[in-house]
Amino acid sequence: MKPLYLRSSGSFKRLLLLSIGHYRSPATKPPPSTDADTKESPEEPGSSPRRSSSSSRPAWRCFSYDEVHRATGGFHARNLVGRGGSSEVYRGELPDGRAVAVKRLLGASACERRERDFLAELGTVVHARHPNVCGLLGCCVDRDLYLVFDFSRRGSVAANLHGEASPAAMGWAVRHGIAVGTARGLEYLHKGCRRRIIHRDIKASNVLLTDDLQPQISDFGLAKWLPSEWTHRAIAPIEGTFGCLAPEYYTHGIVDEKTDVFAFGVFLLELVTGRKPVDGSHRSLLSWARPLLSDGKTEALVDPRLGGDYDVEQARRVAFVASLCVRAPATWRPSMTEVLELLEGGEIRQDRWAMPEAAASDEEQPWWFDDLDDDDDENEDEEFSTPSPSSSSSTTSN
């Protein structure tokens, strides 16, 4: 198989369009617009109207190698902002001054799996158009494989919540806004997007912040789309982040929307507590928080750095939603639509969420919530992770 960078630019661009469903031959009539198409491309205040989804032109473009090379200063080390096992991310600037993040895939240029992964990520992220999802600006297939995104100057939630460079603890109002905004983005991926997208790696380092502190879900390197007639997918090998993996995925490789719901529950706990999914002592946030959640001790959960400066009712609501999301039986977790409704003030009915006794017995601490072995790596919570494509944090993921 000839590597992408050796193929003609025109033929591969056509392949790109075909692979993600944007391309139509001139003789093909455009499909009628649908409500889903409208939902997929929301217009923001002050923005110019988007093209109709029936247009044959995609919302992204193909960059030349010279463009991405100049933008990143020749991929200079000073512009390296993220690195993972299969990619590295560089900060760049386009001629019009727009800051971008250029994600370069690593590995042998002729590796078919690398090319499949590139097309899979591209074919997933191009369908996502939402204020709380990091949008794709384009790609480059000259010489190598690159994805280009808007750059987040404020970095990730993890960098702001845990980073030593953060001047003070992130305030409660910001944390609550991040929780609701991220829920909106994830609910869109599950329900509002033309293709049902399972992210598979929801975590604080994969949620970026805009200049006005709005969250954007990023890094679709592990994402999978779920056809409408499917209830789940079986994935192998198991990939993701320690401390955030749902039990049915970790044990059986089964992923569906509830896999993301579980990870989102861990994300909510991280926002409330200010703790990482796995701390420096290799202790799981879930194993620490679960007894407190069961006893309703919200005050003991809240990040002490807030000094009591938080909305008590909001904190109780977020903790309650987190407790639903991290339930071991996937069928008893809420959907993201229900999560969003609860976070935005929907009525909390304890009887609605009470589990039968048989299901509740599964909530006893199973082995996948146990603390990690002491001889594991210091960054155990990131072993399976990939770098955020637009993060402005340090060269190692948070």
Automatic annotation (TrEMBL):
Residues 23-57, 355-398 are annotated as: Disordered. ATP binds at K103. Residues 360-384 have a biased composition (Acidic residues). Residues 75-354 form the Protein kinase domain. The lineage of its organism: Eukaryota, Viridiplantae, Streptophyta, Embryophyta, Tracheophyta. PANTHER family: OS06G0693200 PROTEIN, OS08G0249100 PROTEIN. InterPro entries: Kinase-like_dom_sf (IPR011009), Prot_kinase_dom (IPR000719), Protein_kinase_ATP_BS (IPR017441), RBK1/2/STUNTED (IPR046958), Ser-Thr/Tyr_kinase_cat_dom (IPR001245), Ser/Thr_kinase_AS (IPR008271). Residues 44-57, 385-398 have a biased composition (Low complexity). Belongs to the protein kinase superfamily. Pfam families: PK_Tyr_Ser-Thr (PF07714). This is Protein kinase domain-containing protein. Keywords: ATP-binding, Kinase, Nucleotide-binding, Serine/threonine-protein kinase, Transferase. GO terms for molecular function: ATP binding; kinase activity; protein serine/threonine kinase activity. Signal peptide: none annotated. It comes from the Eukaryota.
